[in-house]
Amino acid sequence: MIAFLPFLVVALALLGAVHWYVWRRLVRDVTAAGGPARRVGTAVAVALPLLSVAALASGRAGAPFLFQQVVAWPGFLWLAVLLYLVLALAVGEAVRPLLSRWLARRAAAAPAAAPAAVTAPVTAPVPVPERTAEPGTKAEGEPEAKAEPEAETEAGAVVETKAGVVVERPVAPEVSRRLFVARVVGGAAAAAAAGTVANGAYGVLRGPKVKRVTVPLAKLPRAAHGYRIAVVSDIHLGPILGRAHSQRIVDAINATQPDLIAVVGDLVDGTVENLGPAAEPLARLRARHGSFFVTGNHEYFSGADAWVDHVRELGMRPLRNERLEIPAGFDLAGVDDVAGESEGRGPDFARALGDRDRSRAAVLLAHQPVVIDDAVAHGVDLQLSGHTHGGQLWPGNLLAELANPTVAGLERYGDTQLYVSRGAGAWGPPVRVGAPSDITVVQLASKQA
């Protein structure tokens, strides 16, 4: 915990700095000081990061599941909006001076306009006897003349009233121009961020699309030609994605009529007690040779052993560093995720693959693509993985590329092919941008066919 503290301090400081920047551009620069809009905007700018921290920490802290659900939607969605707000505002920093110069040139070319006079309603005065006085003196009973009050508009213009007429004295042109530019750039950034996140959330909540990939294997027998494996990863059942999400995935997989189903980790973000009902539709998965499951890193945050027992009750077979022969004529193996090493249950390739007949084709289920070197060393023909989400939120794919050999799709490493699914769900924000969720039907092809 002590080693984690510096990272936490840096992360919180960065989060605070980013929120200050967003508050400055979207609240301070576009509202009047002390006005209701400024006060409301400031309150929102304080509340949203607190909700995000609560959403991130509540699950690990063991908070009641209802509380997790309440804070998850606004807290996680705000993180996605924040990302695209910052990106859009960064672009706006380049647009801001260009727009200001264009407006200045336009104003210089236009003729000067007189201040606008707005007639205000005037109450007719009560007639009083006329009194006369010497010039320079005031008549008896005449009140002292008082200066008309001045008021400031939200835009910063000064308003004065004279004899029932309201006259607005415009502020300096550069002040009005700066306010206009700030509102245009801020409004455009907010609209772009909101639209991007809304579209990305719709994609997740609609459910994953089915992809089809053909993978030729040199050692696959003719009898297994056309064998279909439905690969699904990173379902991420949790406070946001629940039972309806599971049902959409089950319906999509069953519609493909696969020969075998592979669930390659990160099924859940929570305990069996809280998410067991959400996972229940998985009991209705149907495939000729059954459904198989390997752990992902998030299972070890959620009670891996309990979930392994539960998926077995749902009709899936966990593969924990073990292998079996598929009747079609190839070996299927599965290894625990590398996150299990902290609990003494990491991947054991020697146990899963060490004594097999290498003349047979081997398909390996492993959550993280990073174990591809071990797969190559043990003569695996095809590794099926997830974990990366394809980056989930652009430009997250650039970071994912730094940590994974393959972010999404099919690639070859020596004699081993690696297929990485983008996953069927989402972690954190229920949003995907540039990395749509998927279920992949991998069709094996025999070179002997």
Number of DSSP helical runs = 10
With strands numbered from the N-terminus, the spatial order across the biggest sheet is 5-16-6-7-8-9
Oligomer: single chain
The gross shape turns out to be: elongated
The overall strand count is 16
Note the beta-strand portion.
Answer: 15-25%
Write structural notes for this entry.
This protein has 449 residues and is of the alpha/beta class. Helix content is 39%, strand content 18%. The protein is built from ten helices and 16 strands. It has helices at residues 5-26, 36-58, 65-109, 173-206, 243-255, 272-279, 304-313, 349-353, 372-377, 396-403; strands at 117-119, 150-152, 158-162, 165-169, 209-217, 228-232, 260-264, 291-294, 316-318, 322-326, 330-334, 362-365, 382-385, 409-413, 416-420, 438-446. The chain has a six-stranded mixed beta sheet. Strands 10-11-12-13-15-14 form a six-stranded mixed beta sheet. It is elongated. It starts with a helix and ends with a strand.
Write the layout of secondary structure elements.
Elements: H1 5-26, H2 36-58, H3 65-109, E1 117-119, E2 150-152, E3 158-162, E4 165-169, H4 173-206, E5 209-217, E6 228-232, H5 243-255, E7 260-264, H6 272-279, E8 291-294, H7 304-313, E9 316-318, E10 322-326, E11 330-334, H8 349-353, E12 362-365, H9 372-377, E13 382-385, H10 396-403, E14 409-413, E15 416-420, E16 438-446
Parallel strand pairs: 5-16, 6-7, 7-8, 8-9, 11-12, 12-13, 13-15
Antiparallel strand pairs: 1-4, 2-3, 3-4, 6-16, 10-11, 14-15
